[in-house]
Design a protein that fits this description.
two-stranded antiparallel ribbon; two-stranded parallel ribbon; mainly alpha
């Protein structure tokens, strides 16, 4: 049972742990102390078990001014695994992404013979990739804040799988080992996979889509706790600042999702304005602009927001993004149309 803790809430967390132990013992469900882990976030304060598994706890946390000492301390761990996600003390996605990529590459090594086999149809191979490898490596990615380097690592895995399925050698092989003029860039691999029936996005673009889907869900439900944590009452992004954090400001999932949404909305509106200028007199209005094709991997529509773009969109710009998304959702009751235009 991993437990996270901030420096101002350790007493509340410790008392909650004692209450859980007490009520679990009443139904003969004793807590397995050897499997408990403590993840310290912005603090060095330890958490202690209750003094006994049975009966009422008499420690100073549960009984004011009690001389009874605490029980054993919860073992501290720099990384814990909870619901399939690896959480670290620095609250970064590096540990989780690295471990998932390692397991995915190991699975790809096992499936390499099947991916390279010419007796298996290509659509079966793409189905295995979508349902096994992609599902695992992108698990809970909508709640991660990925850096540019992590997005590159995800796309590297994506194109390695496509190369195995399309029987295409790497650029190093084409230029050094066996020089020839056969196109083998990532763009060519994407087009070749499209010809074979693969219509999916790269892993970094898929991560953006899932992140924006979660953002759209949060904005559509202002009564939820997620909405109250993400957005303030004045429809401004709620910044997360505390005196216990060290180092420069860090990007968070919500603000990067808003930056990505702003980028896609601006591109769609620009295309719509260009289509209106090209419309003939008395002609019907042009249809809604569709997002670019997935194989256009370097398109500006699928660019990830970085630190500079997020800082530029802070304050009134993030409020404008929130208001724009709310108006788009309110003006159209069908969520499918909104998803087709802005991936929410």
């Amino acid at each position: 049972m991993p437990m996270t803790q901030s420096s101002s809430l350790y007493l509340i967390l410790q008392r909650a742990l004692h209450i859980i132990q007490h009520h679990a013992a009443r139904i003969e469900l004793l807590l397995n102390i050897n499997k408990c882990e403590h993840l310290q976030l912005n603090t060095q304060q330890d958490i202690f078990f209750r003094d006994t598994q049975q009966g009422q706890c008499q420690c100073s946390t549960c009984s004011h001014r009690s001389p009874v000492p605490y029980g054993l301390s919860v073992p501290v761990s720099p990384v814990v695994k909870y619901l399939g996600v690896y959480l670290s003390q620095k609250a970064r996605a590096q540990t989780d992404i690295t471990k998932k990529l390692a397991v995915t590459y190991a699975g790809l090594k096992v499936l390499r013979t099947s991916c390279q086999s010419k007796d298996i149809p290509a659509d079966w191979k793409f189905a295995i990739y979508r349902q096994v490898l992609k599902t695992f490596v992108l698990y809970a990615v909508q709640s991660e804040t990925l850096t540019a380097f992590q997005n590159v690592k995800l796309d590297t895995l994506h194109f390695r799988v496509l190369r195995n399925i399309t029987h295409t050698k790497t650029m190093l092989y084409r230029r050094v080992v066996n020089p020839n003029d056969t196109p083998a860039s990532n763009i060519n691999i994407s087009k070749k996979a499209l010809d074979l029936g693969y219509k999916g996005h790269t892993l970094s673009a898929e991560a953006i889509n899932r992140k924006l889907s979660l953002l759209g869900h949060i904005i559509r439900h202002p009564e939820t706790v997620e909405h109250k944590v993400t957005v303030a009452s004045a429809h401004m992004y709620r910044r997360h600042a505390t005196n216990f954090r060290v180092g420069p400001p860090k990007l968070h999932r919500a603000e990067t999702a808003m930056a990505d949404a702003y980028n896609q909305i601006q591109w769609l509106q620009q295309q719509e304005r260009a289509a209106l200028l090209m419309r003939l007199p008395n002609a019907p209005p042009p249809p809604p602009v569709a997002p670019p094709e997935p194989h256009l991997i370097n398109h500006e529509y699928y660019l990830n927001g970085n630190r500079n773009t997020v800082w530029q969109l802070h304050d009134w710009q993030l409020q404008r993004v929130y208001t724009t998304v709310r108006l788009k959702i309110a003006s159209n009751g069908k969520e499918c149309r909104v998803a087709s235009r802005s991936h929410f």
